[in-house]
Amino acid sequence: MGRPKAFLPLEGTTFLGLILSRLAEAGIEAGVVTSPELSIEGAAVNLRPEDGQLSSLRVGLEAFARDRPWLMLVLVDHPTVSVETYRRLAEAADAGHRLVAPSFQGRRGHPVVFSRACYPDLLDGPLEEGARWVVGRHRHLRHEIAVDDPGILRDVDLPEDYRRLTGESP
Question: What is the span of the domain harbouring residue 127?
Answer without folding.
Answer: 5-163
